[in-house]
Amino acid sequence: HAQILFIFALAVVLMGAVGEILYGFVHLNNLVIALEAFCPGTTKAVCVLKLCVFFGSHRRWHEWVHRLRVMLWSNRQEKGQQMLVGLSSIANRLSLLLLCSGTMTNTAFNLQPLIMGLYRWMSQLPGQIELPFNI
Fold this sequence. Notes:
84% helix
């Protein structure tokens, strides 16, 4: 089941990466449009690389996490339990930071055309539809 999901996710992200990078190469005469395609395209290519590396070392990663979990939970001393709580708190904060930063970036990126359109409308400037990417 996990292998099928991995292959599907890999294919979707890889298609997007290849498409956007090719679009950037086709439009090299307009640097702004090319960069608008290269930025998400290279990000997706890095995600494909990370997926491949993670899936390739998945067994070793799972065994390492399992050994660490057994080691931490088998320690019933007060100091060991405090360390476990501290590490869990740090991991939760880092996960929340990652989620919040991604959400804020996505929100700002998607609101920019709306804010610019509202500014044009309030200033009675000619309207222009602007999408985040011209793809």
